[in-house]
Every structure is written in C-alpha cells, then in structure tokens.
Amino acid sequence: MTKTTTAFARLLATGLEELRALEADKSVPRRSVRNFETSVSYNIRWMSLDGRFYDASEAAIKLFEGKVDLHQLRYSDQLKAERLLDPSVKKRSILKLEHKTCVSDIWGQIKASDGKVETIAAILNSMQIVWVLVEEDNRLQRFRRGDNHDAVYEAAGIKVVRNPVTG
C-alpha cells in the first residue's frame, strides 16, 4: 500500500465518519448532507491518479504500439503520448482513463464498510483503472455497473489487457 493510498484512505475515513454524523443529525438539511457526501466521494477520482500503473484496452494498445507502452503511461504524460500519434492534438482527445469499477460503486463499498482506514485502503487498492480509447469509453455504461465489471466491458466490445506489473 502506497503512502498516497493510506493518506486518501485516512481522508475518506474521516469524511465517512463526518458524513454519518451529519446524516444522523436531523437538523442538518438533506441538501447539505448530499453536498458534503459529493465532496468527500469526489476525492476517489483524484486518488486514482496517484502514479499507479494502469491496465489498457487491446484497441488502445494496438493504436499506440511501437510508440508508447500504455501499461507504463502516467496520467500526467497522456497529452505527450497522444501527440506522438497526432502532433496537432491540443487537449486529451484520444485516450480516456476509465475506472472499471465506477467511482460511485467504489464509494458505495466504502459507505457500506466498517469505515476503518485499512478497509478503505483495501477497497481503493482493488480499483481497476484502464486506458481506453475515447470511442470505447462512449460505449460504456456509466453508472451502477454491478459486480461484474468484466461483463460491462465485454458488452461494450472492450477487451482489457491487465498490466503485467500489477495484474
């Protein structure tokens, strides 16, 4: 477990504890509770960019073959990688870093957990994050994918190649 994962797990554990207290306090407006929950759960998106190695779709690997090893590509280097294919690229437009387990599902697991830092860190470490092509991302179901994330990708015609380092 990285120091970053542990720090995010602590942050989320504290946020979850505060959220549970706000939910129990009937004097706090429901909208305020939802806003707080959104701000806490949003941190999961940033945690996924902590320098980990990612999986990649077969189509994305094929497109970047000989230019970039997507299993080693960091989010911060995405634009440079895309410019190797098309020097005119001004913004991230070829690849998308996709949570195979939706952030909303990850947050749901954390909310249903015992709230301990170790438990939350284990949930965060179980996240599978995948480089996909933008057109592949457009075919994916957005929310509530259930437990069989592989089936969701399969239904969208996306074959995920696990990272040999982390897979």
Key traits:
167 residues, 9% strand, 9 helices, alpha+beta
SSE layout:
Blueprint: H1 3-24, H2 30-41, H3 43-47, E1 55-57, H4 58-64, H5 78-85, E2 95-99, H6 103-112, H7 117-125, E3 129-133, H8 134-137, H9 149-155, E4 160-161
Parallel strand pairs: 1-3
Antiparallel strand pairs: 1-4, 2-3
Describe this structure in words.
The chain is α+β, with helices and mostly antiparallel strands. The chain has one domain. The chain is built from 9 helices and 4 strands; from the N terminus they run αααβααβααβααβ. A 4-stranded mixed beta sheet has the order 2-3-1-4. Helix 1 crosses helix 7. The mean pLDDT is 90.
A few lines on this structure:
Helix content is 50%, strand content 9%. With 167 residues, the protein is an alpha+beta fold.
